[in-house]
Fold this sequence. Notes:
Layout: H1 3-9, E1 13-17, H2 24-37, E2 41-46, H3 51-56, E3 67-68, H4 71-76, E4 84-89, H5 92-103, H6 107-115, H7 117-125, H8 129-143, E5 149-153, H9 162-174, H10 177-186, H11 193-206, H12 208-222, H13 225-239, E6 244-250, H14 254-269, E7 276-282, H15 294-303, H16 308-342, E8 348-353, H17 362-373
Parallel strand pairs: 1-5, 1-6, 2-4, 2-5, 6-7, 7-8
Antiparallel strand pairs: 3-4
Amino acid sequence: MSGLQSLLDDHSVVVCVGCGGVGKTTVAASIAVRAALQGRRALCLTIDPARRLATSLGLGQMRASEQVVDHLAFLEAGLILRGELWAAVVDPKATFDRVVTRLARDEATAQRILDNRIYRYVSASMPGVQEYMAMERLAEVKESPRFDLVVLDTPPTSNALDFLDAPRRVLEAMNSQAVQWLLALHGDGVLSQGTSFVLRHLAKIAGGDVIQRMAALAADFDTLLDGLRERAAEVGDMLRGPDVAYLLVTSPDPLAVDEAVYLNHRLVDLGLGGGALVVNRMRPLRSGASSVTRAQLLSTLERAGISGAGASGLIDALQCALHQEQSLAQADLAEVTRLARSCADIDSVCLVPGLERDVYDLTQLARLHEWLFAV
Length: 375
């Protein structure tokens, strides 16, 4: 049985991690297609609302709400759908709004937060919010009985595991000294002379109404912090649960391999090792091509009406190109060997060649999963 198949059979969540530009989103979508073809209710949850992904799944566009892929799209691609395939893109702002509505002590508090212009900016731009809300969204759909499997394409951050630490970092920001200043400004607390001086000058720069809105937001959010801490702990436990698997996606590019080794070591440190590895876009090693002799090539060209210096020059160019191609393929294999040695805890390694065409429809996604699952 394919190692990736075991990953699907034994888990209800597959989290695809890796640096940007290695085909992670496409691999995630192909895995979800595989699960749906086998009879599961699969959701592909992505951070990337790329038009090409929507087209690949037969959708007009990716939406924040889950949308089902029409079974007729599978039939048109010559595929028999036994389960269901759903897709959604993470909307950090909408997810944050739901968290606020759920945790606020009353409807009025929730509405004040949602209407606050500072909140609208923070919920879309605060560092760590996208990653945190991606994990919150994952927790939402995982807790839903609608899906048997959720495949998550993680955020394209500089550190592809930032999402694991995002809840803690967001809560730290909410508990910062600056926030405490704003709470004191909003409440009856007595501000120190230095704090009052700083806030007066901030008000001159940003406007007193901006400082007041920030203070009001901090006060309202202070009532949410206990709930946010509890939820952050729940999400963290979910990410480390036995039914969540991590699939590391990379390419044979040396820099991507370096990143994959680092990510795997971090997963191991966090107790999340032992998953699977996909090396995408491998260049093929053409074992039989180098055995063709120069004489055989000359004979072939002569039959095509090419001879003399022209034939000789063409053969030189072909052999040079072949040598370069073989060298690149051997370099890819060397990088895979280095990767495998550095990630000895990985249960399964899958090598996927560079496809002739971009993946742009269900047929291509199904073809990719034939490589992923060796079927």
